[in-house]
Amino acid sequence: MYGQRCSLPIAATVLFLLLLLLSFMILTGCRGGQPPAAGEDGFLVIRGAAVESEVRLSMEEIKALEGGLVEDDYFSVNSYGTKQYFHFKGVWVWHLLKEKANLKEHASRLSFIAGDGYEVEYTLEEVKRDDYIDEQNPEKQYKMILAWEEDGWEYNPGEGNPLKLVVGQREPGDVNKPYWVRNVKTIRVD
Q1: How many domains in the chain?
Q2: Measured between alpha carbons, how far is 185 from 95 in angstroms, rounded to an integer?
Q3: pLDDT tens digit string along 100-117?
């Protein structure tokens, strides 16, 4: 009987502690002590060991890079073999880096990181390319872009960062769509 009387206060204490922990996790965004992702919604951050100093760009600044603006139909192949075209407006990543980021000589690798942590990595040479292909149209050549509009609709900043990394195929048969990154928040240059 003694054990039964004490179990209620212990259960209440455990429940209180769990609720307190849950409230703390909700208020801190469940980051578990990790620093928040660089950048905030609506901004792109360029940082890393191969950047002289961190750069923070608004959508207005990105859209103003007229010499690097790209509008085109990009061909994609997903992991299931589905082939599809999407119309994008955006900026050539290499142009953006040349104009806005002061890269160090040893810059060789770039990681594009989404708000949810999804990340893809490319070499600097891959970012500079302007000859990605469309296997169905050998005449086409594409640049790697950060798009803010798809099929006539601008991405909504209220649903994360309004930028998507888009790249054509390296060669015929290349499955390129898994390397497109939605909600790009950070470009890390190493």
Answers
A1: 2
A2: 18
A3: 999 999 999 999 999 999
Nearest Cα residue to 39 out of 151, 149, 146: 146
Contact 166, 90 (CB under 8 A): yes
Residues 6+ apart with CB under 8 A from 105: none
CA 159-87-152 angle, 5° bins: 55
Q: How many residues does the chain have?
A: 190
Contact 113, 180 (CB under 8 A): no
CATH label of the domain that carries residue 108: 3.90.420.10
Give the span between the Cα atoms of 166 and 143, in whole angstroms: 9
Q: Is the pTM of this model over 0.85?
A: no
DSSP 169: B
